[in-house]
Amino acid sequence: MLLIPLLIGGCSKPDLGDVRGNVVADSNLIQFGQVFVGTEASKLVTLSNMGRSLVQVRASDIPSGYDMRPSELTLAPGAKAEVKIAFFPLREERFDGQLKISLSNAKNELIALDLEGEGVKRVVDPVEVLDFGVIKLGETKTLPLDLTNLIDKSLNLALSIAGGSDRTAFRVDDGAVELPGGTTRAIDVSFTPANRGPHAASLLLRPCASCQDVRVQLVGTGGITELRASPPTVSVGTVAPGQSKSSWFAIQNIGDFPAIVTSMTLVDDPVRSGGSDELLSEFSLPGNHDAFEVEVGATIEVPVAFRAAALAEPRKYAKIRVMGPDDRLYFEVPVDGKSGGIEVVAEPETVDFGRQPKNFAAKQTFLIRNTGESVAIELYPPSEQANYSVAAVDGTSPPWVLDSQNAGSMAFEVTFTGSEIQEYPAEIDFPIYVNGAMSAEQSFVTVHLMANVVELPPCDLDISPSSLRFGAVTVNRGVQLPIEITNQGTTECLVWNFDLDFDNRAFAAPGLPTGSQVLAPGDTITVGIRYQPTRITGVIDRSNLYFNHSSAEAPRFVVPISGLATSFCLSADPSPVAFGAVPQSQQVFKPFLVRNCGPEPVKISRVSMASGYSQRFTARADETLPVTITSNGTKSFLASYKPLDLVRDVGKIEVWTQGVDEPFLVETQGQGTEGGCGVLCDWPTAICPEANQSVTVNTQIVLNGGATSPGGHPTTCAWTVASAPVGSTARPSAGCTPTFTPDLVGNYVFELMVTDQLGNRGACQHGLTATAWDGLWVETFWDRSGDIDLHVLNEALGDRHNQNSWFTNPSDCYFGNCYNGSRPNPLWDGNIDMTGSLDRDDRNGFGPENTRVNRPSLTHPYAIGIHNWGNRQTPVTVTTNVYCDGTLVHNADSTFTSTAQFEILGSVQYTGSTCIFTRDGTRWNNYH
Question: Which of the four pLDDT bands, split at 50, 70 and 90, describes residue 12?
Answer without folding.
Answer: very low
